[in-house]
Amino acid sequence: MACWIYRSPRKDEMYLYIAKEDDFTCVPGVLLERFGVPVRVMEIALSDRRKLAREDVAVVMDNLRSQGFHLQMPPKIDVDLYAGD
Length: 85
Fold this sequence. Notes:
By secondary structure, the protein is of the alpha+beta class. Helices cover about 20% and strands about 25% of the residues.
């Protein structure tokens, strides 16, 4: 399955995966407004055998089939990591 990945210029580590290159018609307007103008990062071929760094490939593929896009949110920061001694 072909997939195009775009990063948000407004929010670090937020990515939008879409099923059709440069076609954001399936993405809700409110989401695109908050996401900002998408910046293309890469095109990849998804399959059940391919692992993604922070997303479950099966969930991404299901979202692309059912809604045409998948939103990857930034990772949550563990506050305890930054607590002093």
